[in-house]
Amino acid sequence: MNENVKKAKRCYGCGAALQTVDEKLEGYVPENLFNERDVLLCQRCFKLRNYSEDTPLEPVISEDFFKLLEQAQASNALFVYVVDLFNFEASFNREINKALQKSDVILFGTKRDLLPKSVKDEKLIEFLKERAEAASLKVREIFVTSATKNFNLKEILPRLQDYGFKRNIYVIGSVSSGKSSLINAFLKVYKNETSHYITTSIYPNTTLKVIEIPLDEKISIFDTPGLAISNSMLGLMEREVIRDIVPRTEVKPRVYQLLPQQSLLIGGIARIDFLSGSRTSFTLYVSNDVKVLRTQLRWANQTFANLIKFKKIRPISEKIKSIADLDAFDITVGEGQKCDISWTGLGWVSFKENNQKIRVYAPQGVSIAHNKSKI
């Protein structure tokens, strides 16, 4: 794959060839930094990471991606599957799961630092194991990681190479799953001891750009394009909303003791109504920047509209003026187990099932999931 690729110094964030000529073109970096450092972020990626400027590109899942998987599988590759522990349902892709069922997989649960410290890693690993088994994945090992805390890449990488048995490693995952952060953290400690360079090129027989990172003279890690999530708030809401709903620090669980006919208004973008059942303790896991208000169900519609109209709640979307702009999902649960109801891209509410009837509201196009609790 390297034969016809021009080798160049590249941004470890987006893979663009670095240049010092035109600030408006991709890959720009000031000349003094270009000459002083070997591993760099381009100016766009630097601003995006540190100041939340610019809009990251979101490649969409396509037939070409499945061609990439098929070709990698034909070479007996090892797959590193990156899933987001906070937004798990959004990143654990059914189509990808089906495509990987006959391949060796290492599962990485990222963004551990966003979940409460009181949750044990063993609990998260057990959750990931159960979901992987239900999806018929051949998981060799599971890692719970964070790109910002206790990442331990120096210890993990040799284990990946052992599992690889001298075969290429492909890193796959959804946009915003933490895949890029994982690769970036690896590149910060990466030492190129081969004659090959990090390269970006079109993958054979596809239109996909793939970053190749050589581990030795024959084996490489391939960083594949992130898969866009079409049913997530992260892909459907405005940038201002996304800034509020994407957590940057440990999420603080919020516990609400609700009686039937009470509601929780979750910013100006979601809502949960407790329609019937006995008094229940609901624990909400959303970004600390999202404001939540409890109210009586009979007043919920008007309160929701007024909070949006007078900007008394956060976040607010221009797409949502009243409850009529949200889709409603009725969920009747069983009895006994602890469960989660999640909004793709926002977070989830956890409670013990006791034959309750719940109505959940989400922006149009956003998926709702009801599963066994993960923590």
Query: Helix amount, in percent?
Result: 25-40%
**Secondary-structure element order, N to C:** HHHEHHEHEHEHEEEHHEEEEEHEEEEE
User: What is the fold-level CATH name, i.e. the topology of the largest domain?
Assistant: Rossmann fold
Described by its quaternary structure, the protein is: single chain
Instruction: Briefly note the structural class of the backbone.
Output: alpha+beta
Distance between the termini: 43 Å
Q: Total strand count, please?
A: 17
State the gist of this model.
The chain is an alpha+beta fold. The protein contains 11 helices and 17 strands. Strand 2, helix 6 (121-134) and strand 3 (138-144) form a beta-alpha-beta unit.
What would you note in describing this structure?
With 375 residues, the chain is an alpha+beta fold. It has three domains: 1-54, no CATH class; 58-223, Rossmann fold (3-Layer(aba) Sandwich); 244-372, no CATH class. The chain has eleven helices and 17 strands. Mean pLDDT is 86; it is low at 1-8 and 51-60.
